[in-house]
Amino acid sequence: MPPVKDLLFKDAYVDAARTKVLERITLLSDGSINYVIELYDTALKETISKLKQSDRLVRVRDTVLNRKTSEFRVAIDKEAAEQSRLLAGKKALKEKFMEKFGELKEKFKNAGEKIRGLERERAALEKEKTALEEKRVATALRHLKEVNRLRDSRSYKVTHERVRVQTATIVKSNHHFAKGRDHEKPRGDFETARSLQSQAFGTKKCLEALKESGIDIPQETIDLFAE
C-alpha cells in the first residue's frame, strides 16, 4: 500500500482509520470505511470516464494526424514528382541547349573562317585593284604624252604646211599680180582695176578650195582678197 501522503483522499482515510481504531466495533467505523471506498470508487469512475474521453480524443487526434500525415505525404510525393519532372525538363533543356550551342559554335567557327577568307580575298582584290589603277594611270599618262606628242607634231606639220601654202600662194599671187600689171600697163585704169579684181577673186577661190581640202588657212588671209 502506498504511503498515506500519496493517497488521493488522505484526509478522509486518516479520519476513517482514527474512527476505526477508537470504535472498532461500532457501525460508524464501517460507515466511514464505506464512505472512503465510495469516494475512491467515484474517483475511479471519473478517472475511467476521463481516460475513455482521453482515449477517444487520442484516437481522433491519431485519425486527424494520420490523415494529415497522409495528405502531407501525398503532397510531398506530388512535390517530389513535380521536382523530378522539372529537373528532368531542365536536364533535357540543358542537353538541348548544349547541343544547339555546339552547333552554333561550329557554325560561328565556320563563319569566322569564311569571314577571314573573304577578308583575305578582299585584301588581295584591293591590292590587285590598286595595281591595276596604278597601271591604268601609267598607261593613261603614256597615252596622254603620246597624244600630246602627236598633236604637237601634227600642229607643227599643219602650221608648217599652212605657212608653206600661204607663202606659195602669196608668191604666186604677187607673181600673177606683177605679171598682170606688166601686161596691163598699156590699158586704162578701168581695165587695170577689173583685171586686179578678177585676179583677187580667183585667188580667193583658190584659197577657199585649199581650206576645204583640210589645209588650215586663216579666214583673215582669205578675206584679204575679198576687199
Question: What would your notes on this structure say?
Answer:
Helix 1 (10-22) runs antiparallel to helix 2 (27-184) and helix 2 (27-184) packs antiparallel against helix 3. Mean pLDDT is 70; it is low at 24-29. The protein has helices at residues 10-22, 27-184, 189-212, 219-223. It has a domain at 159-223. It is mainly α.
Structural class: mainly alpha
Shape designation: rod-shaped
**Which blocks of ≥5 consecutive residues have pLDDT under 50?**
24-29
Radius of gyration: 74 Å
Beta strands, count? 0
Strand content: under 5%
Tally of helical segments: 4
Distance from N terminus to C terminus (CA atoms, Å) equals 181 Å
| Main sheet makeup | none
Encode the helix/strand succession as letters: HHHH
- Mean pLDDT across every amino acid position: 70
Keywords: Coiled coil
Key structural traits:
4 helices, mainly alpha, 227 residues, rod-shaped
Short description:
It contains four helices and no strands.
